[in-house]
Every structure is written in structure tokens, then in C-alpha cells.
Amino acid sequence: METPATLEEAAPLLRPRAMGAVPMASMDRRIAQASAEHGVDPGSGRYLSAPLVADISLGVYLSYPETNVPITNGQVQEWGTTPQQVLGTALETARRLDHRAEGIDGCMVVQAEGVPGLLLASPSIIVKGLTDGRPAVVLAPTPESLIVAPRDDRAALETAADLALQLLQQEPRGALSPTALTTDGADWSVFTYPTDSFTYGQMARYWWMLQYSQAKPQLEELVEETETADTMVSDFKVGEHQETGRYQTFATVVADHPTLVPSSCDEVVLVAADGSAETRAFAELASSTDLLQPVPDFVPPYHRIQMPA
What we know:
Blueprint: H1 7-10, E1 14-20, H2 21-38, H3 42-45, E2 50-53, E3 56-63, E4 68-70, H4 73-78, H5 83-94, E5 102-104, E6 107-110, H6 115-121, H7 123-130, E7 136-139, E8 146-150, H8 154-170, E9 180-183, E10 189-191, H9 198-226, E11 232-233, E12 237-240, E13 247-254, E14 259-262, E15 267-271, E16 277-281, H10 282-288, E17 293-294, E18 302-305
Parallel strand pairs: 11-14, 13-15
Antiparallel strand pairs: 1-3, 2-3, 3-4, 5-6, 6-8, 7-8, 7-9, 9-10, 12-13, 14-18, 15-16, 17-18
Helix pairs in contact: 2-9, 8-9
């Protein structure tokens, strides 16, 4: 298929799409690698991206019957326009799309091409149309899904997190962000779920498992180029507590092997040279010892640790 020659020709096909910082970092690494292999500017191959709030931004793609084609910075230059004009055109096209939402146990769920991106760019629509004027909490687990709950309804908030987990399990490659956002109709800010929220904790841990499993091969390639031969990259593993059913995440470190461990894990299993093992909370290790050192310039975040033999 041929890419439209101008922004005007492309307008009916353009759709806004929410993007997460962690998946985008992974994509940027692949683009940079491909650009280096072909001797082209990596900046032109990067996807158009306009920051929204926290780790979420808005991009644009061309919607075809059988595929979607992301708009890159290079394409914007070829059209002789600006990222703002392209995003504005995509949002205007999305306003003419079907905005219907499905009500599920106090939540409203939107799953439609281009519409979640539009709603994230227009929080007033969410408050007026989906929560009857009440402040809203929003989860965007995948690029084409949005789950909205009234901020003052604890049961609906739990349902929203559970629905987000289900969507991630159905579409693991499309994981966007675990960040919850809130709005009263004007601007977005980050919403902090109650610390005792079982369902949000499950969803967030599952999301991080997806991100680390996808990032590990890229980090291992980087380690081969820049680290010593015995440096290891630990898996991000998820276990389920036998009594509570709560997900618990952990990484494993073997004595005398420099190891890169996911920074979002709950616990680190330290295996000594004699085979004995000790489990420590990651937060405790990070705050009370000098064993953990952040790995610079890599997303999702990792820490380096080396146990003495």
C-alpha cells in the first residue's frame, strides 16, 4: 500500500493512539539498531510522540483494513508539516468515530480504534460522558482500550483494575502502562491506588512481568557487547502466594556472578556459593546496602548486584 502523499490525503486514515514510555523505549532501541545497520538517521524512524502525563504519550497511525502503520518523524517531514498538526488532524478524525462504551459493574469500558487516544486528549469528555460529572480514574492497559471508574467508588476501582488485568492477559504484546490517571475534567494527574488494593497490585505486577520478559533479550545483547562474560540478566518471575493468591515478583542472584536484576521486583533471592539461599526485599536492599547500583540509560529499569563468593 502507498503512503498518502500529503497530510490532507492521510487525514481520513489517521488515528490517535496512546503509547507507554517503557514499550516505546524498547521500540526506540530496535529502531536505532535498524537505522545503524542501514546508515540512516535514527531520529527520522522514531514514532511521532507527544507527551501527555506521567509515562503516557500520544502517537498517530494510519488505519488500513488489515494493518496499522505508525507515523514517524520522517513521515511528518515528508508531508512538510508539524507533529502538532498531524496529531490535531488525527484527533479531529477520531471525533467522528463511534464513542460508545460498555458498562461493567460500575465501570465504563471503551474498546474502539482511535477513541481511547481521543479521550485521553480530552478529559472533559470522560467526566461529562462517562462518569456523570464525577471525578474519574482511568486505566489504559492497551493502546486501544480505556477503562473508566468514578474516583469515589472503591468497588468500581477494583473492577477497573481487574478488567485491565484481563485485557493484558488477552493482549500481552500490546501492554501500554499500569499507571492510573485521574481527572475532574480539566487536567490529568497520576492516581495512587490504595496500598491494600489486591486487584491493582495483581495487574501492575503482571504488566511489569510482560515488560521485563520482552526487554530481557535486548539487555542480554547489550550485556554481550559491554559487560564481562560472566554477567547475568535475571528473569522477572511471578509467583502466587498459596494462601492469599496475591502475585509476588522476584529475581535470583548467584554468588560471584555480576547480575542485572529488574528494579520493579518485590524480592531478590540471594544464592550463596554453597547453595544456601536467602530472600530479601528489593526495597530493603536498595535502601540499606551498597550492593545494588542502578543500570544507567535502560528502560525498564534494572539494578546491578554482585554478591561476594
